[in-house]
Amino acid sequence: xxMLIFYLFFVLYFATILPLANAESEIDGHTLYFYxxxxxxxxxxxxxxxxSTSDMRINPRxxxxxxxxxxxxxxxxxxxxxxxxxSISKSSMMPPxxxxxxxxxxxxxxxxxxxxxxxxxxGVVSDEKLRKTSPDFK
Length: 138
Ligand code: HEC
Known about the structure:
Blueprint: H1 2-36, H2 38-41, H3 66-69, H4 74-83, H5 103-117, H6 127-133
């Protein structure tokens, strides 16, 4: 009987703890973005958060804009989040986050940015490829 209780306890323990551990790693990017980024970038990531007003000389980036976001590598996105706009000669209105977020958290935010734009880095399109896809290209 004792053994059975022990066994049940064991099963219940893992049945409850493991899914929680997994859930934690999945929520990160979205939750962090919601907490730290939406006041400027907007709840849907369109660059229209409550702090994004006409007083801002440069508006927060629209993270759903796939044509822009696909020109950035994941590394470039991580770098600008870590070092802020100034680190890539852009607006100081984009704050640096390296003191607030860990490297791992920043990576999960980048994963979330990729969900928002529904895009990946597409690389520099070569002339050769352009000639094939658009006959007008010289
Ligand atoms: C105080 C307002 C503000 C907050 C908060 C903020 N941003 Fe920004 N962000 C900006 C502005 C303004 C720009 C546009 C900078 C420019 O184009 O010069 C920007 C640009 C960006 C860019 C595009 C950089 C590029 O390559 O052009 C990324 C990516 C980004 N922010 C991510 C984030 C993330 C992730 C967070 C939260 C951790 C965040 N931002 C929080 C204001 C903010």
